[in-house]
Structure prediction request, 775 residues.
Amino acid sequence: MAIGLTWPNLPDLQAMTDYRPRIPLRIYSEDKVLLAEYGEERRNVMRFNEIPDVMKLAVLAAEDDNFYKHNGVDWSGVGRAVLANITSGAKAQGASTITMQVARNFYLSSEKSFIRKFYELLLTYKIEDTLTKDQILELYLNQIYLGHRAYGFAAAARTYFGVPLSKVSIAQAAILAGVPKAPSRFNPKTNLKRAIERQHYVLGRMLKLNYISQAQYDEAMNEKIQVKSRDNNAAETQFALHGQYVSELARQLMYNIYKDNVYGRGLNVYTTVNSKDQEIAYKAVRDGILTYTRRKPYPGPAAQLELPSGLEQNQEKMEEFLDKVKTDYPDSNDLHTYLVLSASPSKVVAIRDAGHPIELTGTSLNNAKRALVAKPSTKRHIMRGSVIYLQKVKDSWTIINMPEVEGAFVALDPTDGAIKSMIGGFDFNRGDFNRVTQAWRQPGSTFKPFIYAAGLERGLTPETNISDQPFYLSAAKTGSKPWTPKNYGNSYTYSQTLRQGLYKSKNMISIRILEAVGPDFATEFIERFGFDPARHPPKGAYLTMALGAGSVTPLQMASAYAVFANGGYRVNPYIINYVTDPNGTVLMKSQPVKAGDEANRAIDPRTAYIMDDLLRGVARNGTAARTQATLKRPDIGGKTGTTNQSFDAWFAGYTPKMVGVAWLGFDQPRSLGDRETGGGAAMPIWLDYMASVLPSIPVTKQGPLPQGLVKAGDNFYYTEFPAGQAIANLGVGGSGYAPGTEETGAAKPAAQGSGDAIGKLIESFNPLGGPPIRF
Prediction:
């Protein structure tokens, strides 16, 4: 009667026959390397024939070796469980087969009651009657919860070992097969010791059932289990960490489209980022930050703890103490946390794992000499109980502090804006703030090329002679304090050509070009490159724009330099290439704007050509000469940038096929220190990256002169303003300035060579069409 009343009310098996699990959102690189997955459940669904036999056999040995013999219920096992429960007087033991567990996972709770067990038995028979044994086992292997948000053995293999299920060894399979008994207690991340004990039981069962040979058993028992962690050096694990800035940005973009529904749909997002380039960028940023950190005074240990005397003699207590230290002060990749046991000016004894102290002497102490004294008395001194970080350099440990300075790097393809690599900080695990996209910083001299380009479009030439004398604006003129900008090193000449002004990054030249261009045109012009005028100085103080006093992000700067690299076209940076559903059907595909489409033109092609020539000159003979000298290729252009008091260090450089921007600075702006410049602090990051990436990219020769542009010697002329009519001088010829000589500041510009005033000359020239342009 009970069966007759219950059977018609059993749930339909559609959830099993039409199995659609909650599969997480997955982010991949361009070359299909998994970067990250987002969702409450980590899951990889595999077909039965894709699951390795060793995993199937390990599960059968651990859970249900009679699976292919019984009809869903192992009555001998039920009898043993009933006897045990009667004897104990409690419902302490079950006799669940794999089919029963599938029934419970899909439809029932884990409540231990006889009523629930009765439903489970009936549902088990219904499943066995509907599905084949292989189908049931496939569902189990994909559906079972295995701890740490991993559902199914494929996800668990990646979660615990960082390998695909197809690559697991017998020893690893036995570890995984032991987890279902108690996922919270038997998973290797939570308790490796208990997981190995359970593994030994599974291996013993596999041997007894002749699933493996004695030799395989012995090899598996002796295999050392390496659990995936932040310290693991496996390539897949490390890249997953290094791709976090990329994957988090992609996740945010997907969330904006799907909202909360984005998690669990099984969407696969393929980004534009190349995994190898991303790894190179990560190392370049990290090395740049650590190099800067080493040349600054050691600030002292990360913390000073009260370490009881003799605690290291009790290994168990010491291990507990060290576990808390490593939790509170986690590693950062190759920077490892250590606890100091003793310290003197000549030797430091530190420990990371109980029973394994190390001694640091000689050159290992060089970086921290100022913190090693005979009688330590302050928190800046290293002493017993100090928490320090060690890094292995050339097979020797050295003391180094966790960097306070931050950095960022982004590289993109200037032909369409595809982002190829992006590192938004030293360590994503210290905070997910992405400095590539979120840090608004002053660009300093990296902004000057846009001012120079504006000057070219207003009639200047590379050989226009411009006053390099000091510039002055009084308080009456500024409305607040006098403005007396300076050249770097306080060095001045009578005048410089526009070309040499850019090569030498002369502030006075930039200021006079911007003054000649005027605020209205300058504001409109920088907007063509993607800059936000609202984040740059207003008209009343617009001249400070010439020194990079506005705010930009590294990504914005990379996109802007792409205009110089690609011949004058505005391309929008993008990071998602295409998106598929779990079946591989393409749901979305990017359609980026591309260089070459005249609808995307930002500046006159002649201006782009001249600026490319000038910036290649900067990389050959100017402040960025180290780039061409190091990389030995003529198609590099770029510009260094250092802001006032060295708050920000920049380098923006490119070839026609790759743009890269590096930045270094403190999140809370403060000086990087005396003599810290973009060329010394940021350029090495760019060089490290390009030295690895550019060899696979052919050198691109500069193309033919655009129509309407004439070259004469080192100079270029627009056909509208040939030699003899172009602007030859700006602020020179008796009209240069010395501080305090004029309230207006710069010289009254005069066009020499043609005899016409610059206002009249420029009034007739508008390279983009439309009404005449006036000053």
